[in-house]
Amino acid sequence: MRVLLVEDDDRLAAALVPALARHGHQVVRAGRADDAFRLKDTCEFVLLDLGLPDLDGLELLRRLRRVSSVPVIVLTARTEERDILRGLRSGADDYLAKPFRTAELAARMAAVVRRGTRPLAVTGRVAQIGDVRIDLETRRVTVAGEPVALTRREFDVLAVLAREPGVVRGREEILDELWGDVQLSASRSLDVHIAGIRSKTGRPRLVETLRATGYRLGTG
Fold first, then answer.
1. 84: closest CA among 70, 71, 98?
2. Residue-number span of the structural domain to which 85 is assigned
3. Could you say which of 40, 73, 92, 146 is the most buried, measured as most Cβ atoms within 10 Å of its Cβ?
4. CA atoms of 94 and 127, how far apart (whole Å)
5. Is the peptide bond before 99 cis (omega within 30 degrees of 0)?
């Protein structure tokens, strides 16, 4: 697999490039955000450090997500939960804290590719994932061309995720936006509505749960 390593640490890059090559990957390294953005169309996977000299890595990730669905794993020393959540919300497929083992990184890359976490497309106000079509304007959902009758609140939850396909929305963020309340009663309601979406569409992976972070549209 063609991998773009965006890392300004020369010592780490020097160790990581041959290690990934031993796992069968062809690695190109960029030490700056502008070089990484220029090389984005040449790769099948991106490994992104957040501490870049010319631009914060999260901003590079957001810019990348506007034009590309290439899988991205963030590699960084930032381990606070809020930093992890920001990375996932910005469109990262996974997050690995430094220091890490190359074998774990390779395994996570393989898992991201298997999951196909970004098979999503949005045209105007329509999100399409597999055979599931979500029309945000008409509030209609179809699966394999057949309409699915969601409740108003079930559709609201799905729409929050469909507005930014592949981006993680935090649990409290959804509760605050739709219920204006993050208390236990609203939290239980969210669980019920997500279960309803999965059951009625017959696509249990349509809403993907990321433990301790939130939800995003999955693989259907």
1. 98
2. 2-115
3. 92
4. 22
5. yes
CA distance 135 to 97: 37
Determine the residue type at 154. E
Distance CA 82, CA 91 (A): 14
In this structure, of 128-132, 136-140, 180-184, the range with the lowest mean pLDDT score is 180-184
What's the pLDDT score for residue 119? 42
Number of Cβ within 10 Å of residue 156's Cβ equals: 16
Say how far apart CA 2 and CA 14 lie, in whole Å. 17
Tell me which amino acid residue 218 is. G
For residue 147, whether the previous peptide bond is cis, meaning omega lies within 30 degrees of 0, is no
| H or E segment to which residue 62 belongs | helix 57-67
- Residue keyed to tokens 């965006």: 6
Query: How many folded domains does the chain comprise?
Result: 2
102-117 tens-digit pLDDT: 998 998 898 778 755 4
Q: Minimal CA–CA distance to 106: which of 41, 47, 168, 37?
A: 47
Pair 61, 11 in one domain: yes
Q: How many residues are present in the chain?
A: 220
